[in-house]
Design a protein that fits this description.
Number of helices: 7
Helix content: 40-55%
Largest sheet: 6 strands, parallel
Oligomer: single chain
Number of strands: 6
Radius of gyration: 18 Å
Bound molecules: 3-methylbut-3-enyl trihydrogen diphosphate, magnesium ion
CATH superfamily: Decaprenyl diphosphate synthase-like
Distance between the termini: 34 Å
CATH class: Alpha Beta
CATH architecture: 3-Layer(aba) Sandwich
Structural class: alpha/beta
Strand order of the largest sheet: 3-4-2-1-5-6
Number of domains: 1
């Protein structure tokens, strides 16, 4: 079946968020170290970005490293950070060429300096691109993001810049890391786990959730198309009848 052909181009999700999971298990199945799975996950990211660009999806967000992931063995964290630097470095020319804007959410300050530098460089090189925005969530967790927003708002209230009565949904969203990007229409999680793991909790209030057993390093364009087709078969009611 040609999944791509069946996608309705007029009903594309404006924003697809992805929890890339299962790298470690993928490696384990092959008798390798977990990092081998992370290395092989890069190709899946590339394929997904390419597929989104070809279809005309305007926003993609990848959960690449969570606040909680800092608690993994130091060796894995270090190698993941190195891999990240390498991947950003290698992929940036392609992003520039394809009109992709890179963005980052999360506690970027907490990343190793080398990683921040590579990221800053990629953000600067792609900042004027408009075809597709690819956001990577790095040292991100939704609870961190919400608490961070609350702290900023509390300070502004204290300084008399915000009247507490004015705090509404629209204002609150301005203080989230994702401001300016529409909420995800579709959230994909690979590897068969049925949980959100502290990702975009505010933003997915009305997102459609799609879970697939495919492990992230095996995720290919056809899996991405399948998720979009599933999304397009659903009826979104947003609390109405
Ligand atoms: C996802 O794969 C990548 C990151 C969280 C960085 P995992 O590393 O969580 O792989 P599994 O879930 O242990 O198989
Ligand atoms: C979620 O995956 C985080 C990322 C994909 C970056 P995890 O593998 O860390 O989540 P849990 O531990 O299974 O909930
Ligand atoms: Mg995992």
């Amino acid at each position: 079946m040609d999944f791509k052909q069946n996608i309705n181009k007029n009903k594309l999700p404006k924003h697809i968020a992805i929890i890339m999971d299962g790298n470690g298990r993928w490696a384990k199945q092959r008798g390798k170290e977990r990092i081998f799975g992370h290395e092989n996950g890069v190709k899946a990211v590339r394929e997904t970005v390419e597929a989104a660009g070809e279809l005309g999806v305007r926003n993609l967000t990848f959960y690449a490293f969570s606040t909680e992931n800092w608690c993994r063995p130091q060796k894995e964290v270090e190698t993941l950070m190195e891999l990240l630097v390498k991947a950003i470095h290698n992929e940036t020319p392609e992003l520039v060429e394809k009109g992709v804007k890179l963005a980052a959410i999360g506690d970027i300050e907490s990343l190793p300096e080398k990683c921040r530098k590579e990221l800053d460089d990629a953000l600067a090189k792609t900042k004027d691109n408009t075809r597709l925005t690819v956001t990577v969530a790095l040292s991100y967790s939704s609870q961190w993001e919400i608490l961070n927003a609350v702290k900023i708002i509390a300070r502004e209230v204290k300084d008399g810049k915000i009247n507490p009565e004015e705090i509404d949904k629209k204002m609150f969203q301005r203080f989230l890391q994702t401001h300016g990007v529409p909420d995800p229409d579709l959230l994909i999680r690979t590897s068969g786990e049925l949980r959100i793991s502290n990702f975009l909790l505010w933003q997915i209030a009305y997102s459609e959730l799609y879970f697939t057993p495919v492990l992230w390093p095996d995720f290919r364009k056809k899996h991405f198309y399948q998720a979009i087709l599933d999304y397009q078969r659903r009826e979104r009611r947003f609390g109405k009848t």
